[in-house]
Design goal:
about 120 residues; 8-stranded antiparallel beta barrel; 9 strands
Length: about 120
């Protein structure tokens, strides 16, 4: 499969509180594993007023971990606690993580949701 074709297949939607966000996953082992588990409906916790977090039962494979500034809208995996994370507010912190992808727009909706159920599906 070519990288371009696979990237097209790695589009997802994230739905919470009646709103749907579009995202594109990076082509890496962790993202491919997450994509293979879709669809999923999970309850995410609002942590630190900057991120939505889901503590996964099974870990994702990690490859190239990064430890730099994240971007608002990044979808990441935090290996130490097996957490799937949506970063919705920037606070300047740097931490080691596996980049999964990025939400196109609208991630600021999580600033007011608190803990919430979300559904993640393949495709747009």
């Amino acid at each position: 499969m070519t990288g371009t074709l696979y990237a097209q297949e790695m589009k997802i939607t994230i739905t919470a509180n009646g709103k749907t966000l579009n995202a594109t996953l990076e082509d890496n082992p962790a993202s491919r594993e997450l994509f293979s588990r879709l669809p999923m409906t999970i309850t995410m916790q609002d942590l630190y007023s900057r991120e939505m977090c889901y503590f996964m039962k099974d870990s994702l494979p990690t490859g190239k971990l990064v430890s730099d500034n994240y971007r608002v809208g990044d979808l990441i995996y935090w290996p130490p606690q097996k957490c799937l994370v949506i970063l919705y507010r920037q606070n300047g912190e740097k931490f080691t993580r596996q980049y999964l992808g990025h939400i196109d727009s609208g991630v600021e909706m999580f600033e007011t949701t608190g803990d919430t159920e979300i559904t993640i599906k393949a495709g747009l």
